[in-house]
Amino acid sequence: MEAKLKGRHFITTQDWTLEELETLFALAADLKTARAEGRATPLLSGKTLYMIFFDASTRTRNSFETGMTQLGGHGIYLSPDKMQISHGENARDTAKVLSRYGDGIAIRHCAFSEGNAYLREVAENTDVPLLNMQCDFFHPCQILADYLTLKENFGGKTRGLKLGVAWTSAPNYVRPLSVPQSLILMMPRFGIDVTLAYPPEFKLMPEIEEQAKANARAAGARFEISHRFEDAFDGADAVIPKSWGPLVTTRDVPEGLRLIEKYPDWRCEAKHMALGKDRMIYMHPLPADRGREVTDEVIDGPQSVVYDQAENRLHVQKALMALTM
Ligand code: CP
What we know:
The protein is of the alpha/beta class. It has helices at about 1-5, 20-35, 60-70, 90-100, 115-125, 140-155, 180-185, 205-220, 255-260, 270-275, 295-300, 305-325, and strands spanning about 50-55, 75-80, 105-110, 130-135, 160-165, 195, 225, 240, 280.
């Protein structure tokens, strides 16, 4: 299995089989243990990953770059405004040149209706793996970390868990759809029942919602959409309340921000956490808009696992890089 993954692109979890994803989670757990025990894991000695960030990042940049160091390789941070991309060099030429030098290319490009297309063009023009560090449609590395966090919190058994994914109101900028879309695609494939709650203007891409339904049917899991915030919490084992923009409804930023302001009550508070199972955990990919998306009481409370989730980005991405590069 591991040999089959060498050279593979990772743009969405949808492109990988469950067996391939399980291989990744097993290696991530081994690498996490090795790090806790202080054992070196130089699986990528002498290898280089180019990391192109069209958008800001704290967790993704540092977990990828640190991950390359811990695997004995080198991660190079690249900003398009310091590359010839800023003068119009196209995705094809950028991909072909970087793949002559190094061993992998990772990209974050979240501009709606541009990012995924850019990644796909790079992937078509490189013979080294292309890793998605978040695009307009998908944030697969975040969802790998989320799944590892669920496994750790529920004794390795995830089939039959109920996960609530709820939209929250955070009006300082319009966030991509990539996290909720990746969650609803992958979690049902592992038998997790997902309730997705959002106000009507915040629907996700119709083809992604349809694919999520198909994934759930194939796995014997439930996938439901609600327009009531509380439904994501009722009887849940885990909740991920987070903001995204009304990008399917409008691309106009001031209008989008106005729509976000329309629903200030879509905020995770202690009263919502009380609706779940006793052991329900609170998750968020971060950065969280404290006070708007969630109260400090919840995100800093005993049910919150947000820092474990952020740490798991490092372990799953090390596994991803070690398997593909
Ligand atoms: N969750 C996440 O991707 O964080 P950054 O935007 O800081 O990378």
